Amino acid sequence: xxxxxxxxxxxxxxxxxxxxxxxxxxxxxAAVARWTARGIExxxxxxxxxxxxxxxPPEETARLRVAEQRAACAVVGVEHLTVLEHPDGxxxxxxxxxxxxxREIRRFKPDVVLGTGYEVEAPYGFDQADHRAAGLATLDAxxxxxxxxxxxxxxxxEGLEPHxxxxxxxxxxTDSGATHGVxxxxxxxxxxxxxxxxxxxxLAALPDHPVPKDFIPQFTAMAGKAAxxxxxxxxxxxxxxxxxxxxxxxxxx
Length: 253
Known about the structure:
By secondary structure, the protein is of the alpha/beta class. The chain has helices at 28-37, 58-75, 95-108, 129-145, 152-156, 187-197, 200-204, 212-227, and strands at 13-18, 41-46, 80-83, 112-114, 121-122, 125-126, 167-172, 180-183, 232-239.
C-alpha cells in the first residue's frame, strides 16, 4: 500500500526539536526545504551545542558546530534557530529538559512538533542516548505546553500562553511504522544534501563518513517507493486533535 502524503494544508508552522547540530540533516531537512519553499515557517530547537562530537576542545567545537548549523539552516530556509546548552553526550531526560522544550513550543506556537525517536533500537542499530532523551522529553513537552498548570511560571512570569500543537511527527527510516510521506524530488532533495554538506568540518572529523550526495539520495529513493514518488522522506504522524480510536475495527468477521 502506498503511504499517503502528509496533509501540509493543515499546518503553517513547524518546530523541529533535536539533540545536536546536524541531527536534522540526515534526510529530514529535505522535507524542511520543501515546506519553507511553500511558505511554511520552520524553527529548529537544538538542545545541545554538540561540543562532545569532535576531538577539538569542547568550546571550540561548540562554536564551530553552531556556526555550521546556522549555515545548514540558511540552505533550507530556516530563520528561527534556538540552541540550548544542555551537556552534549550526557543529555538527561527530566523536568529541566521538558521545561525548556515546553518554553520553545509556547514561544514559537507550532502546528507541528517534529521530534526524534525514543526507542533503544533503531533500524540502523542502537540509538544514541541523547537522541532517546530528546525524543521522550519532546513527546512529554508537547502535552506540557498545552496545560497552563504545568510550568505555570512561563505563563505567569514570562507572558507565554499555553499552546497545543496539532501534529507530532517522528522521522521514519523505513516504511515500517511510517504513516505518511513527503515528496522531496528535485530541489528539496538538492537543498537537503547541501544542508548536510554545510557541516563540513564535523563530517571531516568522522572517519569513513559517506559523502552526503552519495547516500542521502539512496535513502530518499527507498522512501519514495513507499510513498509512490521518486524521492521522499517518511514520517510517523500523530494527529493529536483527532478523537481517540478506542475501538478499531477488527479484521476478523
